[in-house]
């Protein structure tokens, strides 16, 4: 029987990467609701992200999005992050907000548009060079809305050629991480709609190309943990974008919609050697449209920690024995017993033993930080993904 004390050594290794854009104003295509105290630049985003790590000890890395987070001096930005107790993480490119990308970017029929998108991604690699970051993450909005609009096969060929040009610019210790999404903003077909397409493109590129799995980028009912198992099996799962959804790409707080699914996913991550593993980045990607940005991120990283703790409590030897003997109900009970184990009290006590607040959300609200930034961040342009 695995107890909480048996898993604390593994829990200490949990490091979650938070996205800079989660601290700016975000929303849906209908409305972006502003919030008082919203950062006006990447320095303020990093300062806010540092609050998550301060009260949880779980989020030491902040991913950037280019061009939203462009600066003139990346060395200074790295020093700013370090002064706040965090570091810069994955560089995310953006080929979906320029008018030239209306009909695609890396898969566009026009070679000039493709060249522009390629150049942007190479610019992101140069930023990786300046910051010492390992991963370039590419998510593409490329696709079509109507049958016959473009040649699907030709788009795959053009995409492969574009990715190859970007891949050739990577340094020895850098990676290209290709994210997939089954629809939106393209509605008939998306050029990288699923893990199979991403994996095929990555395998053609080479060993430094990996797949990013966003938990909200699948059709309803998809067995995401099966995809996790497969990608880990072939050594191509580079990163996660954790969020939660009820219907489509809702980008809600992690674990809010289906904590059992999060548990199942993390079980496969542990089973497949994805944790603890520095080659599998555990990152959040969510947009806080109505809840407080910082508190929402705190809640999300805590939900990941809680479900990871439950997954680590699975008695794997007993589970393997039940599985090999064909004990269907026994194996299922072992799995469910771990899921239903309430670890919140143990986690709270463990946090306190490490000098962290037992209730990080409460500690954030009581710190006065939110009130401080609301008073200080008056004027200027609030950061947003629009």
Written overview of the protein:
With 386 residues, the chain is of the alpha/beta class. The protein has one domain (14-314): Divalent-metal-dependent TIM barrel enzymes (TIM Barrel). The chain is built from 14 helices and 10 strands. The chain has helices at 8-11, 42-56, 74-83, 111-131, 152-167, 195-205, 224-233, 259-271, 293-312, 316-324, 328-340, 344-353, 360-367, 369-376; strands at 16-19, 61-65, 87-92, 135-139, 143-144, 175-179, 189-190, 209-214, 237-242, 281-284. The strands form 2 sheets. Strands 1-2-3-4-6-8-9-10 form an 8-stranded parallel beta barrel, surrounded by 6 helices. Strands 5-7 form a two-stranded antiparallel sheet. β3, α4 and β4 (135-139) form a beta-alpha-beta unit. α4 packs parallel to α5, α7 packs parallel to α8 and α10 (316-324) packs antiparallel against α11 (328-340). The longest helix has 21 residues, at 111-131. The N and C termini lie far apart (50 Å). The model has no long low-confidence stretch (mean pLDDT 97).
């Amino acid at each position: 029987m695995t107890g909480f004390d048996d898993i604390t050594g593994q829990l200490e290794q949990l490091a979650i990467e938070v996205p800079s854009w989660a601290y700016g104003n975000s929303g849906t295509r209908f409305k972006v609701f502003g919030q008082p105290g919203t950062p006006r630049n990447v320095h303020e985003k990093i300062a806010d992200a540092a609050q998550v790590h301060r009260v949880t000890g779980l989020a030491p890395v902040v991913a950037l999005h280019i061009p939203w987070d462009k600066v003139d001096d990346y060395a200074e930005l790295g020093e700013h992050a370090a002064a706040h107790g965090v570091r810069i993480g994955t560089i995310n490119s953006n080929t979906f907000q320029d008018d030239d990308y209306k009909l695609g970017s890396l898969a566009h029929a026009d070679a000039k548009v493709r060249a522009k998108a390629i150049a942007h991604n190479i610019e992101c690699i140069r930023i990786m060079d300046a910051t010492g970051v390992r991963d370039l993450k590419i998510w593409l909005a490329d696709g079509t809305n109507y049958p016959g609009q473009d040649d699907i096969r030709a788009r795959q060929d053009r995409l492969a050629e574009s990715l190859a040009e970007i891949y050739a610019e990577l340094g020895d210790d850098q990676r290209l991480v290709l994210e997939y999404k089954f629809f939106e903003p393209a509605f008939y077909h998306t050029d990288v709609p699923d893990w199979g397409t991403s994996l095929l493109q990555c395998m053609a590129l080479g060993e430094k190309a990996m797949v990013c799995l966003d938990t909200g980028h699948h059709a309803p009912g998809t067995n995401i943990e099966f995809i996790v198992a497969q990608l880990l099996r072939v050594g191509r799962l580079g990163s996660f974008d954790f969020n939660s959804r009820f219907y489509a790409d809702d980008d809600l707080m992690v674990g809010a919609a289906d904590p059992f699914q999060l548990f199942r996913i993390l079980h496969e991550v542990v089973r497949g050697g994805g944790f603890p593993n520095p080659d599998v980045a555990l990152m959040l990607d969510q947009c806080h449209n109505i809840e407080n940005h910082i508190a929402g991120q705190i809640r999300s990283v805590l939900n990941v920690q809680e479900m990871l703790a439950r997954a680590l409590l699975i008695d794997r030897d007993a589970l393997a024995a039940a599985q090999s003997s064909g004990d269907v109900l026994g194996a299922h009970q072992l799995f469910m017993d771990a899921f239903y184990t309430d670890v919140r009290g143990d986690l709270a006590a463990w946090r306190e033993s490490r000098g962290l607040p037992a209730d990080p959300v409460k500690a954030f609200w009581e710190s006065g930080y939110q009130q401080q930034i609301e008073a200080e961040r008056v004027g200027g342009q609030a950061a947003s993904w629009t």
